[in-house]
Write a structure and sequence with these properties.
Elements: H1 4-9, H2 11-14, H3 19-24, E1 70-74, H4 80-90, H5 98-104, E2 110-120, E3 126-133
Antiparallel strand pairs: 1-2, 2-3
Length: about 140
C-alpha cells in the first residue's frame, strides 16, 4: 500500500486514481488501472482501453478573478438535477442520473463547498458546474 506522503509528493503520477479510492476498491481481475505513462499497446490484448482524466491543483497561488458577468454559486441539493443535466450535455459517451449525483453527496469525500455552479448574471443561465472530492486524510 502506498503511503500518504508518497501520494502527496506526486499524486497524479503515483496513482491514476485518487488515494481515498485506492483504499476502498478491489480491482477486478479483468481491469488494470494504470497511468498513461505506463500504457503499452500489448495490454489491449487482455484489456479494453477506457481513458479517464483527473485534475489536480496544489491549492497554492490562487489568483482572484473579477467576473462581472458571471457569478459562482455553491450548489445545493436542489441543484442536483441541474448538475446532472450539465454533465449529460457535456459528455457524449456517458450519462448520469439524479440518483447517481445524489449518491456522490453521501461519500466520505463529499464537501458541499466544492460543488459549484457558474451562472450568467443577466440571463441567469447555468454556464457550467464543478464537483470535486476532498480527501480528509490527504487534505
Amino acid at each position: 500500500m502506498l503511503s500518504i506522503n508518497e501520494y502527496i509528493n506526486n499524486p497524479c503520477r503515483v496513482l491514476s486514481i485518487p488515494y481515498w479510492k485506492s483504499k476502498i476498491i478491489t480491482t477486478p481481475n479483468n481491469i488494470k488501472i494504470l497511468h498513461d505513462n505506463e500504457f503499452d499497446s500489448s495490454f489491449l490484448q487482455e484489456y479494453d482501453d477506457v481513458q479517464f482524466f483527473r485534475l489536480y491543483h496544489p491549492l497554492q497561488n490562487i489568483n482572484r478573478i473579477n467576473l462581472t458577468d458571471i457569478r459562482i454559486k455553491t450548489a445545493m441539493s436542489s441543484d442536483i438535477p441541474i448538475i446532472a443535466d450539465v454533465i449529460n450535455k457535456s459528455y457524449t459517451d456517458l450519462s448520469v442520473t439524479n440518483e447517481q449525483i445524489l449518491g456522490y453527496t453521501k461519500t466520505n469525500v463529499y464537501r458541499d463547498d466544492l460543488w459549484i455552479l457558474a451562472i450568467e448574471n443577466e440571463t441567469n443561465t447555468i454556464l457550467g458546474c464543478g464537483i470535486a472530492d476532498y480527501d480528509r486524510d490527504v487534505k
